[in-house]
Amino acid sequence: MRESFVYSTVPFGHLTSPLLSAAGAKHIFTAKDGGVSEGAFASFNFAAGGGEVCDRWENVVENHTMVAHFFGMEADRICRSYQTHSTKVLTVTAAHCGTGLTLPPFEEGVDGLVCAEEGVLLSVRGADCVTVLLYDGGSRVCGACHSGWRGTLGGIAALTVEAMCAAGASRDSIVAAIGPSARSCCYRVGEELYCTFTDADVKNAAFFTHRNGELYLDLQGAVSAALTEAGVKDGHISDGGECSICRPDRYFSHRRQGPVRGTMAAFITL
Ligand SMILES: [Zn+2]
Question: What is the residue extent of each domain of the chain?
């Protein structure tokens, strides 16, 4: 379902999902303002970047530290995904705290994280790719995943639900929120991506629209459908409707800015 996320600039730019907040989930999706990074990364950036110019790692750590403090925690409680557009979801514990930030990253791609312990702050990132936060307040299990088109095609959101259920969550009570990301208003794609999706499942054609001879992909619709298929109730899926491409005032966007740009993050903890 579409619901307006709550945007705040205090103490830094971030959004929350009313659905997740009502369920008691401690979570945020970051926006671009309020951090310490400069230049193309100004200012609330959560990745060094893969372009010709990278952000200083100490700035990235400081931005994470600000978020940790917001949750009343320290940066060494953050467990940070190692995103390779994989469909790997890992259930983590306190032993994984610091991974990817104050400790070395995971050794292989981990695009989804699940946790059933308190005191672990899960973090995934995106700058057009969809970030999804999930929570089951009854059984106290939370999850987060990074779902670009590859992860969406591979069903990582559904795999995150499965990992949560394996950790004790109940599908009936899981709530999920879809963060700021490239939306079908702007996310133009090529014919080959349409073929890749429809070769995998003809029903995926429903997530593409034609406008003025161009194709646009509805990633959020595909993620929502995967969550529904995995047993998450319709009214339990919150899509904030925020497009990273058409809001340069608020979000970083790979499509709009190229590889030298900042990256937003999404955080959740029990
Ligand atoms: Zn847009």
Answer: 6-183+218-269
Cα(107) to centroid(ligand 1), Å: 34
Q: How far is the CA of 243 from the centre of ligand 1 (A)?
A: 5
Residue ranges of alpha helices (H) inside 43-168 are 57-70, 149-153, 156-166
Q: How many residues does the chain have?
A: 270
Q: CATH number of 6-183+218-269: 3.60.140.10, 1.20.58.1370, 3.10.450.30, 3.40.50.1580?
A: 3.60.140.10
Compute, in angstroms, the gap from residue 249 CA to the centroid of ligand 1.
12
Q: What's the mean pLDDT in 174-192?
A: 98
Nearest to 227 by CA among 120, 136, 118, 128: 136
What separation in Å is there between the alpha carbon of 76 and the centre of ligand 1? 35
pLDDT tens digits for range 258-267? 999 999 999 9
Three-class SS state of 12? coil
Instruction: Give me the chain's average pLDDT, please.
Output: 98
Angle between helical axes of 156-166 and 219-229 (0-180°, round to 10): 30
- Give distance in angstroms: CA of 187 to centre of ligand 1: 7
